[in-house]
Amino acid sequence: MSHFGRSGPPDIKDTFSLLVLNVTFRTTADDLFPLFDKYGKVVDVFIPRDRRTGDSRGFAFVRYKYQDEAQKAVEKLDGRVVDGREIMVRFAKYGPNAERIDKGRILEPVDRTKGRSRSRSPRPRHRDHYRDRDSKRRSRSRSRGRYDRDQYRGRDKDYRHRSRSRSPDYHKGRGRGKYDEDRRSRSRSHGSASPARRSPSPARRSPSPARRSPSPARRSPIPRRSPSPRRTTPSRDASADGRNHKGWSPTPKSISPRVRRAGSRSPLPRSDADD
DNA sequence: GTTGAGCGTT
Fold first, then answer.
1. CB of residue A252 closer than 7 A to nucleic acid strand B?
2. Which of A108, A110, A123, A218 has the smallest C-beta neighbourhood within 10 Å, fewest atoms?
3. Residue A128, helix vs strand vs coil
4. Model-level pTM?
């Protein structure tokens, strides 16, 4: 919606939509309007908002009446720091004036061949559908929405540090899939589809197949009544966590042969024989 | 209070 108080897009016949990226989440259309209006006749300013939270998604669409003004705004406002963030102004790929592009050829007046090295790979820009966000059990192979990261942030908030480690212009989007794979890899270790829901009973779960043969009869010959055969002491765990904060694993004790041996031997606290 | 890749509504 635009701040024009109009329902939907205004009279779009020869309007040229500009895509403003990297805008702050707090930046509103009213903030962008005077900025873009200075360089041309802005027909409408639209900022897609989140369906749930209603917050800005981080980009906006500015409709210009004339393409020459729009392009001028692109050159002028592109890279301009707005609200402490450097925005990126580009011609929208889709939209009211997109038919000019979809006609079969890029009739868009935007010169991508310019110094803009923003040309990124034609990745699937299909965002996670709103209803899909609820059913995350879907193949997350292509799920890389920020919503997915939110759920991971609960147990792994390190993702941000790694993400920010690299330059924002580095790889530009392609590098993100790398982390996605990493996440999935770990998820596969202790789960299948839902990484958040891990088996609360490690004893029930099949042990490391790399160590012991997957014999069904040998699964659990001894009725261990202790569901928590953890040998790691809290104090030691804390120190280890501080050092291995980089390569911390969600379930290091389950895959550790040392722990398995200890648990297999006897879950009872035999301090005299343990040493 | 927030993330930061990214293309849109009645």
1. no
2. A218
3. coil
4. 0.45
